[in-house]
Amino acid sequence: MRNHAQQGALVFFARLAAVTAAYYLGGRLGLSIPYLGSHVSLIWPPTGIALAAMLRWGFGMWPAVWLGAFLVNMAVDSTAGLAAGIAVGNTAGPLLAAFLFRRAGLHLSMDRRRDLLAYLGVAASCMAVNATNGALNLVHADVLAWENFSSAWLLWWLGDTVGALLVGIPLLSLSRISLAKAFRGWRGGETLLLLLGVAATGGWLFVTRNAGSAVLFLPFLMLAWLAVRSGVFSASMASLLLSLIAAWGTSQGFGPFYSGDPHQGLAMLWGYTATLSIIAVLITSLISEQAASEERLRLALEATEDGVWDWNIASGELYWSPRYYTMLGYGPEELPPTYEQWASLLHPEDRGRTAESLGKQMSDGTQLQLEFRLAAKNGEWRWILSRGRVVEWDGEGKPRRMIGTHTDITERRKMEESLRESNRMLDEVQHIAHLGAWSFDPATKEIRWTDEVFRLAGIERQPKAPGVVEFMEHVHPDDRGKLRDALARWQEEGSPCELELRYGRPDGSYSFVLTRAKPVLHEGTVVKVVGSVLDITERKRMEEALRENEEKYRVLFELSPLGISLTDPEGNIVEANRASEQLLELGRETRAARKIGEDSWRVLRPDLSPMPPEEFPSVLALRERRRIDNVEMGVTLPQGDVAWLSVSAAPVPLEKYGVAIAFIDITARRHAEMALLDLNRTLEQRVREEVTKNLDQERLLIQQSRLAAMGEMIGNIAHQWRQPINALNLLLANIRDAYEFGELNRGEIERQVETGNRLIQKMSATIDDFRDFFRPNKEKAPFQLAKVVEEVKNILGASLAHHGVRLEVEILDDVTAMGYANECAQALLNLVNNAKESLVAREATDGVIRVTVSRDGGMAVARVRDNGGGVPEDILPKIFDPYFTTKPKGTGIGLYMSKIIVENNMGGRLAARNVPGGAEFTLAVPAA
User: Fold this and answer.
1) Which helix (H) or strand (E) holds 62?
2) Which has the closest alpha carbon to 155: 125, 119, 130?
3) Is 906 helix (H, G, I), strand (E, B) or coil?
4) Tally of helices (H runs) and strands (E runs) in the chain
5) Where are the alpha helices (H) located in 560-666, listed in sequence order?
6) Of 84, 98, 571, 647, which has fewest CB within 10 angstroms of its CB?
């Protein structure tokens, strides 16, 4: 903590020193071309330095500003009092401006017009403090006559304002981002050239006597270019550079603003430089605001998942935003942006309606809003909502251009269809449940019924439901009073209610209905009553039947082999069947003295630890008023044995009861589980032993696979050696013939020996090629994928030719891959061998294997395609599984090992698919 504090203090004092030095040097520069005496300059750079320091490093920089101002004024022969007084004003103005900037939320990057306007307004206002204080101090010290006070004040204010504008803006906008925008990459050269151009133009205009006023505004072009291309920092720095050159040149009698009076020339220059700086910053602010608006529009479109389209009606060309392609799953190169292409994707049922709507919109100028289906790449139809309008017409009033948006509403359409289906299901459910709905308007006394209420009333569907008086006549006389009281409560209190009524049907019978009503209030007044009607006639009959059967269920309760107990709300056991008393070995007297939460139960958890009463399922159900299911627990019986039970408990929704408890004896199952647990412990050891055996077998199979691959490589060597061996045989025969005919001499022998050595070296090189081919790489390294393919071709060329198979190689892109070259070659060798074996098994006379090398994004890709008939679709997903093979003597390891090499070791991918006439394997590894 102390080190951090010390470092912070060092940084703070270093900044104070830097600000003091910069203020002093800037002040000496400004006073080097004084406008009025030795104290008033028309361009005062320290104001911009002070503002930037306080805004970027905090208000704590004010002592450095005061000290710098004091030292500058002492340097021009001011008294200590005068220097201190002027320094107070030069500090107060920037400090007040910095405070107001912070309150206004100024962006230091000046990327908004409001930032520039706020900067100009606040700086201009606060510099009045500097000017007033400075001019008064000069008058008080007799350095300035009172009659010159107003002109001195104006010049002082102008100088501070220009200094804040020319120096403050570049210092405030300086950042890593602004530097990167101006000087990153090739743009840095462009920025430097423009800065040099501004300096050169300024030198030509203001340091020579040859430039005319006609080219005075030439720098504006370069400043505008800098503002557009490199940002506010570069443009403001160029303005500062040009202003310094112009001020020096004008003070020395050069440039178009010099008129013999340097003061008059500097005054004209003041307006010129201020205009330069304001225009440069204003251009960058406008560009930043435009970019921000475009970004907001892009983000808004992305957030709403809407796309934009622009249709040139005359040419038929269309612009689609990227969202259009993602909606349909196509890439931009797959869908030409034309009206014909769009129309070809329309659902046949929507084409006529869509064309009619487009024609109507273009004829009467109404806004287009149309829903239609388009064919997606995956074959499904996507619902699109398109909104648009004609925005341009030709000279004859015909529509020429139309723009709009498109939104994927497939999910909404699915939801709407689902909602319609839900409503149909709801209607059906209401019909099945005999449930209807109604509403009552207290003002008009009008009643509305749904179809189900008419059915429950036993009358035909009518445009209007019966009125209150007619409805009351059908209610059973004994229930009319309840209905009148309910109507009064609805209107007076606005309270919901529930009523059971008997309603008379046309056949003279009465049906029982349960109606629930809820008033709808507006500002405390009932404006409507809505409710439901449920036919409970059957329920009423069942209630009577239930009362009759209650005793029967009581008998079943006692005879049930399931232990059942009931408690009161306090947890006392009030009822228990015979099975519960037997399972717990409790008599009725003992049971009555027990509560469900007492410690005397001595209950165990499944792990044999004591279960506290608060965990008892009956206690949880009583306390939390929820159902607890199948809790296993051991209960210590009075004789000391433990009975293992599966207990469930649930609150009973009756006033005199608390919870119902049901339990079954699982003691025998518990003992069996313990025995099974012991068996599982021994079983785990057996499983480990079997796994070890399987791993050994797997290693043996892999070794056999390697031996088989080595045998196959020896076969390839044999094919490679067949030609040189035949040549050696011919060479020996030539030597013998030469000897028999007496033509054998030393020269002939040396020539034949040299030929034999070349053949032997070729055979030796073949061995080296095969040995290097299978030597594993230790580290990843760049390699040419085409070279690997060529090595595979060299190795397998003779074998393929022997079997009449033609290998074609096409290098679309000589891409460099990153990984293990030999391992990649081994995988490619497996793929080509598999293709060859497929062609040999088919006994093809026109067998062709085509290997194509290309780049696909960041991947180096080799595709191996054959015309061997392809892989059966039912086994295609399994071909990379270990030990899976369709060959009579295959091991099923080759493709599996190739996939491990490519995907696990090299971070690539290996896939297969069927193509017309055969199969295609794609090997992709990262490109270097």
Assistant:
1) helix 62-75
2) 130
3) coil
4) 28, 23
5) 578-584, 588-592, 617-624
6) 84
Identify the three-state secondary structure at position 600: helix
Per-residue model confidence as pLDDT tens digits over 875-904: 888 888 877 777 766 666 778 878 888 998
The per-residue pLDDT for range 411-450, each reduced to its tens digit, is 888 887 887 787 677 677 767 777 777 788 877 778 887 7
Residue 156 host element (H or E): helix 149-163
The token pair at 287 is 């560009």
**Pure H helices in 741-778:** 746-774
Q: How confident is the model at residue 580 (pLDDT cuts 50, 70, 90)?
A: confident
Tokens of 521: 């209030």
Residue 635 pairs in a beta bridge with 603, 643
Q: C-alpha angle 712/716/718, rounded to 5°? A: 115
Give the position of tokens 């030999």: 822
For residues 220 and 178, is the Cβ–Cβ distance under 8 A? no
Q: Where does residue 286 rank: exposed (0-12), middle (13-18), buried (19+ CB within 10 A)?
A: middle
Listing DSSP states for 555-576 in one string gives HHHHH-SSEEEEE-TTSBEEEE
Three-state secondary structure call for residue 255: coil
Task: Count the helix, strand and coil residues of the chain and give each as a percent rounded to the nearest 5.
Answer: 60, 20, 20
Closest CA to 196 of 222, 175, 167, 218: 222
- Let me know how long the chain is: 928
146, two tokens? 């009172």
Residue 221: what pLDDT?
67
Whole-number Cα distances in Å, 918 to 809, 854, 921: 17, 20, 10
Dist. CA 82–CA 520, nearest whole Å:
82
Helix axes 186-206, 232-251, angle to 10 degrees: 20
